[in-house]
Amino acid sequence: MNRSLALGILAAAVLPVVVAAADSRKQTDSNDGWSLHPLVRPAVPRIQGSKFNVQNPVDAFIVAKLVEKKFAQSPEADARTLVRRLYFDLLGLPPKPEEVEAFVKEFSPAPPLPRSPAPDNARDKGRLGERERAAIEALVDKLLASPHYGERWARHWLDVVHYGDTHGYDKDKPRPNAWPYRDYVIRAFNGDKPYARFVQEQIAGDVLFPGTQDGVEALGFIAAGPWDLIGHAEVPETKIDGKIARHLDRDDMVANTMSTFASLTVHCAQCHDHKFDPIPQADYYSLQAVFAALDRADKTYDTDPAIARRRADLLAKQRDLKPKLDALNKQLAAAGGRDLELLDKLIRETKAGAAAEERPEFGWHSQISAKQEVVKWVQVDLGASVPVEQVVYVACHDNFNNIGAGFGFPVRFKVEAGDDANFEQGVTMLEDQSKADVPNPGVSPRSIAAGRTARFLRFTATKLAPRQNDFIFALAEVQALDKSGRNLALGAAVTSPDSIEALPRWSRKNLTDGYYYGAGKGQPATKLADLERQRADLVARVAEASLLAEFATHAKTTNEVAAELAKLPAPKVVYAGTVHHGSGSFRGTGPDGGKPREIRVLHRGDVKQPKEGAVPGALSCVSALPSHFSIPSSAAEGDRRAALAKWLSSPDNPLAWRSIVNRVWQHHFGHGLVDTPNDFGRNGARPTHPELLDWLACEFRDSGGSFKKLHKLIVMSATWRQASETPGQGDAETRRRAASPAAPRPRGPAAAWIDSDNRYLWRQNRRKLDAESVRDSVLAVAGKLDPRMGGPAFQDFVIEKPEHSPHYEYHLHDPDDPRSHRRSIYRFIVRSQLHPFMTTLDCADPSISVSRRNESVSALQALALLNNGLMVTMSKHFAATLNTAGGDTATQVKRAFTEALGRPPSAKEAGDLTAFANQHGLANACRLLFNLNEFAFVD
Amino acid sequence: MRNDSPFHRLPRQSRARTRREFLWRSGGGLGGIALASLLGRENLPAAEARSATPHAECRTPHFAPKAKRVVQLFMAGAASHLDLFDFKPELIKRHGEPSDFGEPVEAFQNGLGPWLRPVWEFKPYGQTGRMLSEPVADLGRVADELAFVHDLVGKTGVHSQATLLQATGFNLPGFPGMGCWVSYGLGTENENLPTFVVLPDHRGFASNGSKNWDAAFLPSHYSGTVIHPGAETPIADLFAHKKGDFITRDSEAAAQSVLAKLNRDHAATREGDGRLDARIRSYELAARMQLAAPEALDISKEPDAMLDLYGVKRYPPTWPKEINAGEERDCFGRKCLVARRLLERGVRFVQVWSGNDNGFPRRNWDSHEDVQRDHGPLAAGFARGASALILDLKQRGLLDDTIVLWTTEFGRMPSTQGGKGRDHNPFCFTNWLCGGGIKPGVTHGESDLWGYKPADRNNPTTVYDIHATMLHLLGVDHERLTFRHNGIDRRLTDVHGHVIRGLVA
Prior knowledge:
The structure holds 2 protein chains of 2 kinds. Chain A is α+β, with helices and mostly antiparallel strands.
């Protein structure tokens, strides 16, 4: 307490000096719109003398500033610090102890350097030779090639674009098809996609790179932010509230685009010309015009270009056929009169009734298996031996993950009946499909003859259903029918060696609850067939033969096209910015052929006060590029986006390249060269190293926009490799001298006083782990991290009341559920109910663009890290792993410490922890390790 | 061209914008914030407390405060001003006649029916003769304390946007709740408890969920802490998850001590990083919160008379499934009683919710179908708890510096929409306030003859004015309480808002 208090007061005491300096700079140096100046590659400063460690041009720029400020460079960090820092910077995961040791050995065969920097000769001592350099380079290359790299850096990107898996606002419905965009971003980083292409795909991938998977999935960018379902689905565009909702929606698209790619607050020009930057209001509405045809909606696509082409052809054919068929139908309706009208109404109603209510009780689900050739069974107990005529079974339909019909149905299986619960004697084989693979039956019920009395029915999978990287067995329903067709298995007890009980979707009792996907469709079907026969008779009676013949030909072709379409594999779906083909209030521009909505400049941003029309364009303040896109009004909407994509990614757009290198820099140092990554305008910060920023921007642009090259350049620099320690605060005399204008070149201690925030990078910054790194590290150290990549998000909550406004109940989640042990980037991100644990750890809020996370320390954070279900269960698992490995407590504690922190404990640390573990158990010691400052910070 | 929209009135005088973010960032960087928030002002001499504040502009109070804390009662789904507080005899006179608004009206759901009289009788209460309807008769006990605003206007009739506007000052998600701003501006009075507490409806969250109280771009510790009084785990993670069966009282004490020791050794070789010290201290605070929070939430020792005042049953029965007055009274009263205990112990801002989402069967105030059915029990429930809270604060001398604010999303239409319900009315609704420097018994702003729009359409009251007034009473200039996010100096009141002088005592 006293110590903290003292620091607070000391910090206050030094402030006036710093503030005065900042203010005077601002006044003399009128902000000249630096970010809009054309990009010119600056000369790399020449650093004279050997006092500084200059590994590459990055260092030259940084050191030049240090020389100017009379600051010293800090010594190189030691090998253990470097390896841990590299892992977290590039992968967001801790190194394993053996990885640390291997690196330390490569790096320095001699004993590692002392931790605290020596005062004077440290620079010479800390400078690296070729061997160390090679060791670092090898590790950097290895880490950049790891698929975990993409997961780490995609998360930074998703923060900025405010990605989420629900809509937000009222009701906050899930957005089950958002994840392909998340996977696209991960893939882009792992594949080192050139930045210009990365930009272009996210704005106009469908237009610029037609027929590619990336070109469509990238459009998830436009739809990444929140969406007001009620404002769109319940209020049409003709109403004021509907106009406001759509205006807000486009505003989010514009703000997202310009904040992300150009680091400007263009959205501030919505009500008036921008107050600080040269952005007229008209420019803002020109950008709205770019997105004027779009809505946020599910977009279907094919990953196979041949199928994509085939589907496009068939759909075009279908579109061509439709008007003619409609016209013929109209003629028929006229001929059929009121009788036909009534009959059609009846048919519609019957069809609606037949579309059985979908319920969430999917069925029974086995535990997940890593191998496919594993025998798993589930069996039904009819209570007594009874005569069974037929056995009916139905596969699952998991609509939530969009896997659909036949989910989890085994590739090989057998069905048996008997009176012995263990199926050892008196077993009748009803169906044996265990010899060869069988095709998936979808959701149609399958029935097999039984013809015997039996008490037990057993369904055994001998080869499980494959998923992405593992195998399962799931079944929706098993019925035992007697002669009269009565289901004897309704409500019968179900047993199985294992099961995933995740109510309401998965449970043993779902197997005999009488419900399966499509249940109840049977009855109206006969009625429907009957009605359709009546209709055919009526039409034949009333319509002229020629009309009938023409109709029949057209109907036949239409049906053929539909049948061809049905034969194609189901298309993939991504939630994206797209032309929406809707009806009712949420109609979209699809029914108008995707024609962009008319955009007008709104006086004071008020939809009730539209002024002159806006034409698609970008920003007039970027002088190097034309801001008006000369696009004829008859052009397809996509041309507008393509033009903006090219504008944003042009080599001559100074904003784009400065923006992105600054973002990358920030994640390697804790803050950017420009401290406001989303605002390069007058209200934002100025670059601390403008020449370095421009040099990096040019270097990045001219070397193909490769993120991996940029990372390597930065982390191989001596600047990045500095130690993070702040040398001693110094005595009063040092401080006095540092503040004096005639001060000689200050050593580290003085730099700490003048530049306590380390803007000039005279050391590396110690960084606090972000929420994802904490969670992923805890899982990894506990040995529970599931490294599977991609696919639908995991849900670490239970949804209650899904029918209206889903309640996302995190406290009902079982932290031991292995499905939730994947990396945090695969978490299902809910907007209306932020993840309590992650949010307490300053995770990004998916409703806003987060260019830099807050870093807070609070009692609630301490409570979360001590008590959250994840933390206590992982502490247990960690302890269990250590116990399995054996050894006495001291050995186990030492191993735990090394796993968690990447270094062996000192004798004192080992002693304290071993004593604690002896008294309170290993799990408590593991929990303690997870709560250490050293665990939460990277030096 | 002049825009007469109330949301676009220009400030009376343009103020010079000064930026002092650099000060904040330099003050030991983010560690400075952590320190400031963790040290707690009461432990610091005033001068140091001010300089440890994040923004120089936010050195608060800007002037002498009248209030120290706030309790906000939020009616989710939009409570009808016409059936509770804004008495319109004209509607009784014209009941059943075809409605005529004198202009085309764009209702949220189409099809406005005839004029609908208030579904309950109104009676005068107190010396001021305040007209209140039957289900809120309990408020008659404190009628003379209340100050009413009958001419509030919203921006849209969409629930989510309207809720966000009242709760955060913006009609789109991504902005801090008002309690976050108050916590950020004034800090804590008791670091052993959260500064901003949210007591949600017992059925669940209202539309937008936690977006109504999230910190958004403010540091996360300014966000509202959700408390479910009486639940198995009233505060998330206050105690170890049930799977943590290996954790005992003894192990916990020993862990704290070993943890602090190892952390101190670690910090000793890393001088000058305030975050490390702040984090050590955060574990001490966490331990103290584990003691303080259960004590604050425990109403079992409250005497019967006190429970009775709030309408709380010591042993609540199993309530029927349908919405009913007994349950509303018990649940809302319980939250009000807990709110009083929290305010008493230094919690800065408490937000109490009535009403869940806008689903069916109705579980909030969105009475499109039947005002009587939903509003009746909900009104009776909140009126008992709210009036008890005011009486109780008063008898403890806390009402003088505690603002009570009753608000909702928007109002409801003076006509039916065909049946017994009323459609959304974002053009006019009611707020009431009391305590904390609010002038008792006054009415600021009237609605027109039907309660359809403000009587003076050119000078309505907006949520910005309410927020500005609230901050003013807390000693904060709403234009100077700012936080820079993505290049914009954000305020609770955006670029709007005037202190309502007529409400200030």
